[in-house]
Structures are given as C-alpha cells and as structure tokens.
Amino acid sequence: MRIDVISLFPEFVAQCAAFGVVGRAGERGLLSLHGWNPRDYAEGNYRRVDDRPCGGGPGMVMLIDPLRASLQAAHAADPAPARVVYLSPQGVPLTQAKVRELAGRERLILLCGRYEGIDERLIQAEVDEEISIGDYVLSGGELAAAVVVDAVARLREGVLGDAESAVQDSFEDGLLDCPHYSRPIEHELGSVPEVLLSGNHAHIAAWRRMQSLGRTWQRRPDLLNEAALSKADRKLLAAFRAGLEAADEPADAPREPQVLATQGKKPL
Ligand code: 9WO
User: Which residue's alpha carbon is at the smallest distance from atom 29 of ligand 1?
Assistant: First the structure.
C-alpha cells in the first residue's frame, strides 16, 4: 500500500510510522510513505503557503495553489488512483469500519492542514472525504494523519504476526477488550483471576467474552447497541451483571443511554 502525505511537516508523520509493527511494515515493503511539502511548490522569494482569511478575523488560511501542486505531484508519482482524505474536526468520525475500508485501497493521499485550515474551494475540488479522529482541535492534521496511517497499516496483510492478527480478529466484533494479566500470579496489587489458571480453555474463553461484554456494557453501551450479540453472549452478560450484584458492588449502572431508546432497539 502507498500513502502520500501532503504537509508542511511531512517528516512528523513519517516519524510516527517509523516504530513497531508499522515501522517494520515499511522496511518489508508492505507500506510506502511519501511526503510532499506545499512549501516546495510555493511561489516567490517568501514561498508563501498561507494568507489572511477573506472576511477578516484571526489567523491564516492555507493557499490553494501550493496544496494543489503538491496534490498533483503526489497523484502523478504513481499511476494507481488515490483517494484524497482531508483530516479535520469537520470530518466524519474515524471508526474501525472506516479504517477497514481505507485499508482495502492501494493508495491514499492524506492532506494535512495547518493554521485555521485550507481554502474551502480546494476541499470541494480535490478532496474525496474529510475525516475526524475525534472532537478536539489539534495544531494541524499531522497527528490525525499519523493515526490513520497506523490504524490502516496494521490491517494490511502480513503486517501483524499470527498472534497479533488473532487478537485483532477477536475485536472485529465491536466489543471492548477483556482484562489481561501476567506473572507473578500473586502480587502486592492483587492476584490473577483463578479461571485463567485453570487450564480449561473453554472456561477461559467464556470468561474473557463475559468480561468484554460486561466492560462494554459498563463503559460503552453505545457500542453494545451496534454489536450483534448471540444468545450465548446475552447469557454471559447477564452472568456478568449477576456477578456484580453478588459481589455487592455499587450498582455501577451504565449511563442508561437515551440512544438505546431513540434507535428503537430493545434496551438490554
Ligand atoms: C484553529 C483555530 C484558531 C482560531 C479560531 C478557529 C480555529 N480553528 C482552527 C482549526 O480548526 N485549525 C485546524 C488545524 C485546521 C485544519 C487542520 N488542523 C486540525 C486538524 N486541527 N485538528 C485537526 C483534526 C483532524 C482530525 N481529527 C481531529 C482533529
């Protein structure tokens, strides 16, 4: 897969992708990252890439032409068609489903803004989709682009080892992770749940699934609503909730989500 990054700081994104499994994917040729700096395509002695916003107000707006020339250069560098993604808080939220879709493409161009953003006409003319990684404002799109590169790269064939892929697969069902433990079995901070020491793999799998379901119910009931739960899952979740009551833990009731009601689905 080839990813081109249009940015005033392209090395920033490259550095973010230089470590761990994604860094190794680069070394192994599974991912190639290319940076394009609009400064290199700017005109004049000052090589301006920004100007004051029409209509006045604070800050600066990125100029169309240096960005457009960068985009043209990136497109022309490889004959395969590329999807152009602009990272901004106005975009559609990045989800694992969206990551999966992006990972299915052979080429992406990630457009990173700075200052107060880029000229809207360039977005209209050249951008295929605008993506947000969350409801907060950064200093620029680069961190968001690095997030996209990381999340996408690890879904490409061969990037993760067998063990990591198996873990990945088990989360493709839209639930939160179960808790993890390692040695020592007995520690000042507590002991490891006994079921994990039982050697009974069916019991262990059921316990982990129950923890995933229970934690998703407690922390992210919105996700539970989307997940397709089997009959066995519902039993495990009921057992999790019964376990809480038996342990007399304060009814750590989930934020009873209004969305459950408004989406016309049966609340759990
Ligand atoms: C900065 C600013 C300063 C004063 C008044 C209004 C302002 N808006 C912005 C702004 O939104 N700047 C953005 C910086 C322009 C586009 C690139 N930047 C960016 C991208 N910040 N945060 C993101 C981002 C991208 C994806 N997901 C979450 C945040």
Answer: 89
- Kindly give the number of the ligand 1 atom that is closest to the alpha carbon of 141: 20
Task: Give one DSSP letter per residue of 68-122, joined into a string.
Answer: HHHHHHHHHT-SS--EEEEEEEEEEEP-HHHHHHHHTSSEEEEEE--TT-B-HHH
Structural tokens at position 260: 């459950």
Looking at the CA of residue 117, tell me the nearest atom of ligand 1.
15
DSSP three-state, residue 138: coil
Which tens digits make up the pLDDT trace of 11-36?
999 999 999 999 999 999 999 999 99
Q: In testing the pocket of ligand 1, which one of 8, 63, 88, 120 has its CB within 8 Å of the most ligand atoms?
A: 88
Determine the CATH number of domain 168-268: 1.10.1270.20
In this predicted structure, the answer to whether residue 228 has a pLDDT above a threshold of 80 is yes
Task: Give the pocket of ligand 1 (CB within 6 Å).
Answer: 58-59, 87-89, 113, 116-117, 132-134, 137-138, 140-141, 144
Cα–Cα distance measured from residue 161 to residue 262, given in angstroms and rounded to the nearest whole number: 41
- Residues assigned a catalytic role: 89, 116, 154, 169
Question: Of how many residues is the chain composed?
Answer: 268
Q: Which of 12, 99, 116, 150 to mutate to test the pocket of ligand 1 (most atoms within 8 A of CB)?
A: 116
Pairing of strands 129-132, 83-93: parallel
Q: Tell me: domain 2-153, CATH 3.40.1280.10, correct?
A: yes
Domain chopping of the chain, boundaries: 2-153, 168-268
pLDDT tens per residue across span 48-67: 999 999 999 999 999 999 99
Summarised one tens digit per residue, pLDDT across range 88-103 is 999 999 999 999 999 9
